[in-house]
Structures
1.
Amino acid sequence: MKKMLLLPFLLLSFFSFAQHLQESVSGHYKALQQVNAAPNPERALLDTVQYPAAEYGSSVTYLLVPPHYLTRVQLHKISHSVKAPANSSDQTRQELDYLLQLQKKRTPEQEQRVTFLGNIGYWPQMNFFPGLPSYQENLRHLFFEGTEVLGPWATAENLPQIARLLQGVMLDMRVMEFTVKYQQLRPRPYHLEPALKPMARMSSPAFASGHTLWAFLQAYTWSEIIPEKREAFLALAEEIRKSREIMGIHYPSDNEAARLLAHQMLTAYFQNEAFKADL
């Protein structure tokens, strides 16, 4: 009954939303931004370290994929709008120290939750394989934030118009994610700090966080569709980005950059006729 009552409201909202402004940086993200991000000559050797080419995964192929809603000009402009702190910088050092503190305080309950969140991820290429069991799982991942906030009825099957929009948005997200990552080749925290024991080793560079990018891009998109749920969607996105730090696989600056990229993408969408036509 709840699903039937909410569906007309969702569709009405979908056609009448206006973009929200982005919240200001806060918490440890704000504090760390005050620290010098420029190279520190005392640690100059660290600036020779890049993400190892031997660890590249298949994600590098997204560099060949055109964006869906974004134009190539928008992709280029947004992808060049953020820059990682230097490896040798005081900011990176403080970020590594922060991750070491999180590692020391990590609980079994946290590890279970962040592992669960780490396994969530929608991959556009799975759309070509509807016969595979993983096809349906991929659609569930596409609607992870929707079902977490709205309930189990919020699915691709029940909301096909929103599913189509999110699929386009998430294709752009993957293209943006790996464009930025392979432009900057920032090593993972565990490449610079041997004392870090990450909960996973990742097959792409650190900056910016892909998990955080999709978490906030979806949260912003859902928030435009259902403004009343904005706080809940953003709280979930915040949990997802913090989980990457708890796992020891992302610097806080990776996550804050991803949040900024997500909102810039949303802003660009409102200038894009193809996006507006799909509303």
2.
Amino acid sequence: MTVDKKAIALSFSRAAPRYDSVAHVQRQVGEAMLAVLASEPAAVASALDIGCGTGALTIQLAPYAEHITALDIAPGMLAVAQQNDQQRVISEWVCADAERLPFPAQSFDLVFSSFALQWCDDLSRVMADVYAILRPGGRFVFSIPVENTLRELKLSWRKAESRYHHVNDFPALAEIQGLLDVSPFLTLQLQERLDVVYYESVRELTRELKTLGAHQVTSNRTHSLTGKKTLFKMMSNYEHFRNHQGLLPASWHYCVIALQKPR
């Protein structure tokens, strides 16, 4: 997968004003991540949130760090996050790419990232850069969706039109585990989790994904318009997943990972 960073910045900037209204899974993921932080409640001097989005989760880092830096590639997200930070919890705002972190070595005691690193081309590079900017003993806590995320939607599209990708690809769990195995980080926790969100219709799901900014943003995506016939075929395929309660599931398979730089 090659990620179009300009498309990401534009997509999430557009999504920013309404993002929190549909970020159901993101809130559940955030709660799981905060629980990891709470296992070591002592506050550190400085923390960085990579892909801070609207700042809803970043603000909740306040008990865990005295100085918080919020970073996002989307200017629109940063603007909304600044509006949301009414208590002025965030010390610094940075608009930058997660694959080009603009910080000197050993700048932070905690690096935090929730559902952002899947938009990076080279996760190993991000991990190496985070390792460099952490102080000895510092922690890297992040969450990332993996390959079976939105499997129902992906399968429905594949049966309707096998030539093109309509859903973003996510890294395999084995790929992430392989990166951890060769990383200098110590692995403190690796939680594999599955959350399922239910919808009354496929259109409700796709509208929500668009509102989240989480639609196709890979640079090799197909730019041709999808015909109505293909779209209806996809929607018909998705109906096979409808449960006994009359609802359609959308699966989010993800990992919550806590790493530590050796002291």
3.
Amino acid sequence: MILVTTLIRHFERPKSNLTLEDLITYPQGTLGNQLGKFLFNNSYEQDPIPEKEDIYRLLITKEVSNTEEVAMYCYLFGNGDKSPQTVFSIVTGTLLYPHYIQYFYKRYKDGKRAFRFYDLDCFKMLHLPVNKIKDAFLIQ
């Protein structure tokens, strides 16, 4: 277990300096405001500092479950994210949830169809409306 924790920490993606309160002050309907509400509604009190994965989750799924987490990483893999964290999450998730393989594959194909966005600095888009971001990148 220590090895897994060490590996995850090594490949952790950068966090933002924004707080939950900062996010909620963004205008209604923007990525920043929606992210703040998402974090608040899903009880992210232990680690209220947003990460890129939180933005991806908001744009791709809005659900908080193990299978949706794996589906999100499948989507990102289809979108071009070949990071060790993404691959590890997909392999582990597929082994743990083999009956969801068709769904994971569908999300992978959805990610392939979307314009590449996984490597953008999402924190620079917090002021933009969520629906415009989804439309611009064909995020389903």
